[in-house]
């Protein structure tokens, strides 16, 4: 216990170096509704989700309205209570994002905590202002405890400057968005959050390290410490730890047996007001999801209607986020009438990026939508059927949808593919597939069944593992623009390698191809590629080329870019392409399986073919 006490003293001193501000928006949902409808400002207002009042404005709280109160109970206390439905969180998310953006003006280290709370680490900004500030001894707002801070590390001056920064934040949020907020200022996240709640609404409070123990000890229950959830609270209750004082005085060894070594030490420190956790800069979420709870759903048609509504709302959030998901997750909560308890279960599956289209809209720069809502909803129902047997009676109390495994689009104006290839070249390269048959004839066929002279049989579909894309791994395929993502794969040239041809004496035939593409405006255009037939030179003859006109552009490289390259780069490109084709031909003679034909690691070819 002595070792722990010494470590607590060390941590309490070292943790004074930071300045943390906790911003908490007053009755956030209610304020957003009052901004949308100013007539509600002087009325008792409650935000209703299902049959619960999730929050209310301060006028309603004067009548005794509390968070998570039943609607019937609230109307009994305040018959004139105005209720606004708050299931759709879109407007709340928008305002929350704007608040976080404003806070980023003061520090890049901003950590969101829900929609209405943010931690901001302003340590660097305080250090900049210490030399010039005249407010090092004046506190802006309220003070928890007294000013008798005897610490010699300079934390008193830093927190004074931090209080003025917090005041600037709150003023800017109010002036720009019309939102009032509270703030807590201290040397760590725990104290900043706790002291923020001591003076509400529209106020701010600073607590110095000398009063940190008194602040934590004032909590009525150990569950009031942030970081102690319901499960941990039950464990602590089982061991007779009910108050913060009990947690401070309990034996560390017994606490470690119940919670583990690291967690026991962590909550022991929290009980003394010591928190060394960092403000983690919040990025884009790893998943975007919605859930809808209800009393009972027992019909498949009701499930489908509910999931269709969630999907529509989820696509709006997806458009706001701007990323394309790689997986869809479906969540259910089933009620067991025999055991009188609920069971939560989820299933997910991967989804292709080509399932989505991006179009400009009146509300979004790039509105993300589905190519086929019906097919996607059918996929969601398949996941649902894996969890619920509809041939038997079922009782659901919750349904949820979530997109996960997001990936950023790395093509477009910032991609090297837009400089080295034109649209049709990227489409053609992305469409090439290599198929092996018993006669060892490899063909690249057009996706839209382009008619050619002579009869050709359609190749038999191969297994998923046997089909590969030439030169481009499937997992790294990307679209170069929005038109590529909205339609099917573009038509590609026909490439035939006959068994009778030598590996270094292949013939390239490119027929006239008509490629149709649609723009965002709905206008359909056609691009024609002229027919050209050329006989490939052998590998040995490639090294001896001196005339640039003798270079034949490989089928998967843009012709204009190729002809603009220097002579030496053309030679290197032709040689790399030839070696790759020889390797494929020689391998296919011994095996019937297909393989990737990849450019060498240091070849110029890898820069001319989009990955």
Automatic annotation (TrEMBL):
Domain UmuC intervals: 20-229
**Which key words tag this protein in UniProt?**
DNA synthesis
Point to the regions of Polar residues compositional bias: 583-592
Its transmembrane ranges are none
Q: Which residues form the signal peptide?
A: none
Please list where the region (Disordered) is annotated: 445-485, 503-549, 583-602
Q: Which SUPFAM superfamilies match?
A: DNA/RNA polymerases, Lesion bypass DNA polymerase (Y-family), little finger domain
GO MF annotation: an example: damaged DNA binding
Name of a matching Pfam family: IMS_HHH_1
Q: Does the keyword Acetylation apply?
A: no
In this chain, composition skew of type Low complexity spans 528-541
Q: In its keyword annotation, does this UniProt entry include rRNA-binding?
A: no
Q: Which GO terms describe its biological process?
A: DNA repair; translesion synthesis
Gene3D superfamilies, A to Z: 3.30.70.270, 3.40.1170.60, 5' to 3' exonuclease, C-terminal subdomain (1.10.150.20), 6.10.250.1630, DNA polymerase, Y-family, little finger domain (3.30.1490.100)
Family, as annotated: Belongs to the DNA polymerase type-Y family.
User: What is the protein name given in its UniProt record?
Assistant: UmuC domain-containing protein
